[in-house]
Amino acid sequence: MSSWFTSTTLSDLKHRVQSSVSNLANDPDLLLSKLTLTSPELSAERDKIDLEEKRKEQVKDSLAEILPWETRDRELEILVEECKEVILGLSSEEGTFT
User: Fold this and answer.
1) C-alpha distance across the termini of the chain, in Å
2) Fewer CB atoms near the end CB (10 Å): N or C, the chain?
């Protein structure tokens, strides 16, 4: 049965790890930022995720301001009255709440 790792792969990996550790050991601030996940790359990614979440929240909030049968699309306004009747009609049906 063959191994997943060859001796050259392991030695190459060992060399890369030693190189990375020695680079981090020379710069304690970089080491600390990497260990605490506050490197510039991670901070930028976290900011990007926060911005996307805020955008989603704003869209959700703007949609919460209108009734379920209302629309902001002028082309669909002709359906508003029909949708309102159907949605409000659901509340008068006994099966809706059981």
Assistant:
1) 62
2) N
